[in-house]
Structures are given as structure tokens and as C-alpha cells.
Amino acid sequence: MSGQPEKEPDVECLEVTDATPSRSLKIDELKLGQAVFEKVVFDSDRLSHFAKVANDRAPVHNDPRFARTVGFEKPIIQGLALSTRFSRLIGMYLPGERAVLEKIELKYRAPVFAGSALIYQCKVVRVMRPLNVVQLGLSITVDGREHVSGQCQCVLR
């Protein structure tokens, strides 16, 4: 597996990096299956910044011994720390700068550990043109296995 999400024929699947300029798609530019993805590694520096903002000092996130006592091989990344990267993908790339998040639902299927290579993907699953609304499927995979899945809905302004 290449680490890149599977691409549907004739539908855009854009990989974004820190250097990718943002965009502002209109509702008529969105197509079913259209997707963006980004490769991210949560290192100790990123996790430290999130822990300070959230003030989350739960030992399952930073104490290896405690994490093992509750069934994890090592400390796990906070679920909301993981979800923060979706904000970037939605608000800058798909649909982009016109998007206002209305709702989001995520399911954490497997723990994610610091240093893991994560693939974030947002994919158009429904376009409601008269309402200027788009629904996106969301996922985070590690080594081809889905660890987080979900969906969100955005209105385009």
C-alpha cells in the first residue's frame, strides 16, 4: 500500500502539505468522491502544545506505566488533539475558505500513539446544492488501518 487513499476515477484526490495554498471552492465545484488528504506525524512538540491549550493532564496520555495498566502499550494521543487537523483540511482545502462547520461526529476505533504516520482524509459524500451544504466523510488511517472515522457537515458562505 502506498499510504495514499484510493482514488476514484475522474475525481480529484488532492494531497496537501504545509506549503499548499488554501482554496475557496463553491458548491457547484464540489463532486461526490472528491477528496483531500494529508500525512501528519504527532511528535512530542505538537502534543505538548495541545496539552497546554487543553490543560489535559490525564495520565493515559503521558505516563507509560499508567497507560499499560489500562491496556495500552504506551500513552495514547488525545482524541481531540487528533481531530484538530480536520479543521485545517475542511477550512482550507475541502470545501475551503467558504466552509463553516455545522456538525462533526467522530468514532475512535483504535488508539493512536505519538510518532505514528497518520493519513487524514476528507471526502465529499453528499452535496445539497439548494442549501449550500456539503457532507464529508472523515478518516484517519495508520499503516492502512482506519483508527478514526466520522463525518461532518458544512455550509458554504
Quick structural gist:
By secondary structure, the chain is of the alpha+beta class. The protein has helices spanning about 45-55, 65-70, 80-90; strands spanning about 15, 35-40, 100-110, 115-130, 135-140, 145-155.
Plain-language structure description:
With 157 residues, the chain is of the alpha+beta class. The chain has a single domain (13-156), classed as Hotdog Thioesterase (Thiol Ester Dehydrase, Chain A), CATH 3.10.129. The protein is 20% helix and 34% strand. It has helices at residues 44-54, 64-69, 79-92, and strands at 13-15, 35-41, 99-108, 117-128, 133-142, 145-156. Strands 1-2-4-5-6-3 form a 6-stranded mixed β-sheet, with helices on one face. A hairpin with a 4-residue loop joins strand 4 (117-128) and strand 5. The protein is elongated and about 55 Å long. 25% of the residues are buried. The mean pLDDT is 93.
Layout of secondary structure:
Layout lengths: L12 E3 L19 E7 L2 H11 L9 H6 L9 H14 L6 E10 L8 E12 L4 E10 L2 E12 L1
Parallel strand pairs: 1-2
Antiparallel strand pairs: 2-4, 3-6, 4-5, 5-6
Which features characterize this protein?
alpha+beta, 34% strand, six-stranded mixed beta sheet, 157 residues
**Number of beta-strand segments:** 6
Q: Mind summarizing the main beta sheet?
A: 6 strands, mixed
CATH architectural category: Roll
- How is the largest sheet built, in terms of strand order? 1-2-4-5-6-3
